[in-house]
Amino acid sequence: MHVERNIKLVTEQHNIPKPSPMPEFPMKEWSVKIYLLDQAGNEHPANCFTKVTYNLHPSFEDKTHQTFTDPPFTCANEGWGEFEMSIDLFTTEKGGKNTIYHDLNFQSPSYEVVQSVTFKNPSQALLSILRETGPIPNEDDSKAAAKARKANDLKKKKTVCDFEKMADSLTKLNEDDLLHVIQMIHDHKTEDTYTKNDMDAGEFTVDLFTMPDHLAKMIWDFLVELKMVS
Fold first, then answer.
1. Which of 49, 91, 166, 200 is in the most buried spot, having the most CB atoms within 10 Å?
2. pTM > 0.70: yes or no
């Protein structure tokens, strides 16, 4: 399974009063932050990543590779030059690393860049995080298929008997016949059959549409025998 999400890189920069090794280029203080976006483009903490490593220009020497573990994974530094950096985005999955590239430039005080990231075979834990920002492939299709099957099952049930007539007739049964129907329900219901027995109020409730077909037919035939329905 592959799940795609958009992330936003927010870059901010400004001049600082420090001498620059290149007089024609002023010293800058800059930062890059990473956010996860939902389908509407709203920002969310990128907690789908366990850590982020920024691979900077070699001139940063021992600070060339900088790793952060807390969203928004802010990488803040000082320097005078523009360059392209690579950014490694890690998840807990085996081989769960995405690498993107980001152009650090000083053309404006701040700018945003949106990039697409693909999560391959995410774990259930990661899927639960990704659900917060959009649908999961095939998951909605599965839900739609289940809904269609349920609707089809209800349609089939309606062909077994007329539930509206059944409900009306059940309210008109005498006590003995009603107890007989309740016993049939207890004996033949399934785990999907919704029933509620309120002993204090002396009420018994059943959702007719959740009864199995054979039980619905048994009750219908019983009502036909009593000439309550036809």
1. 49
2. no
